[in-house]
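Handoff note, outgoing to incoming analyst
You'll be picking up this chain. Sequence as last confirmed:
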Amino acid sequence: MKGIIGKIKSLEERIDHLTNKDFLGELVREVLKDKGFFDDDVEEYESVIVSVKKDVIRLSDLGFSCQPLGDGMWLMRRKVRG
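Most recent structure output, in case you need it:
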């Protein structure tokens, strides 16, 4: 009986690990890379357009770079991958 309980707990831990969003994303990325659909040299950016100076400051503190677009708007970007 202890063996069965141990196996069930082990399976529960594996399921919890598989439902972790970061783990799944990394797993999909590895599979796509292995199949030739994913290139590590490709750069990805997260971009946000803001019109409030407080948002510019907040995003800058999170590592975003700032590019003025004019008319009180700014493009905030940070590299996500690459």
